[in-house]
Design goal:
226 residues; Alpha/beta knot; two-stranded antiparallel sheet; 9 strands; alpha/beta; elongated
Length: 226
């Protein structure tokens, strides 16, 4: 999979992709992530990419021309399955959306900044708008990192255990059950006996019951989606 990211401050994305699972995915050639500087595509003096909003009001707006220049340049070599704008008023990102995006070949993420981007760009170039939550960040870079991580870990071969992602929270509209590891007893706190029984059928039943109970207590809204 190839994911290109357009940003005003691409250096913000250096760290998230330089370590751990995403780095291993890229080292294996399973994932390609390119962070592109929007300022490289502007024709305005001093690498300008924003201007005041027509009609007045506080905050600057990202200009349409540099964004169009960037996308049309990238499209000369890549056909994108989705061109995604990261914005607080987009569809809320969830596991099912990550699953669908992981099936694509080429994605382009556009990171918002300032007060937003010219609406004409959204109307004519964006195919999908995504929010990672009901709050506002300084820019879309952190949201881009979240999406790349959530999608990238689903690619075949990225995780050492291919079944690991299938048991994550939200995959079956349930939160994950509690997990334990050694030692069996610590300060009188013991691992549940069922997990030591070796009876895999009963263990899976216990895990499902725990997942349902945890979801009912913490996120009943997820169960309401069924």
């Amino acid at each position: 999979m190839k994911i290109d990211i357009i940003s005003v401050v691409p250096a913000l994305l250096d760290s998230p992709f330089a370590h751990s699972i995403m780095k291993r995915a890229m080292d294996k050639g399973l994932l390609e992530v390119n962070c592109l500087n929007l300022r490289d595509y502007t024709t305005y003096a001093r690498a300008q990419v924003d201007d005041y909003a027509f009609g007045g009001g506080a905050g600057m707006v990202m200009m349409i021309e540099p964004l169009v220049n960037a996308i049309e340049s990238l499209q000369q070599n890549t056909r994108y399955d989705e061109i995604i704008f990261l914005t607080p008023d987009g569809d809320t990102f969830n596991q099912q959306m990550a699953n669908k995006l992981s099936m694509q070949k080429n994605l382009l993420l556009v990171c918002g900044h300032y007060k937003g981007i010219d609406q004409r760009f959204r109307d004519h170039f964006i195919t999908k708008e995504i929010s990672i939550g009901d709050y506002v960040l300084s820019g879309g870079e952190l949201a881009a990192a979240v999406i790349v991580d959530a999608v990238g870990r689903l690619l075949p071969g990225v995780l050492n255990d291919e079944t690991s992602a299938l048991t994550d929270s939200f995959q079956d509209n349930l939160l994950a059950p509690p997990v334990y590891t050694r030692p069996v007893e610590f300060r009188t706190w013991k691992v549940p006996d069922i997990l030591l029984s070796g009876n895999h059928a009963k263990i899976e039943q216990w895990r499902h019951e725990q997942a349902v109970e945890r979801t009912t207590q913490r996120r009943p809204d997820i169960l309401d989606k069924d």
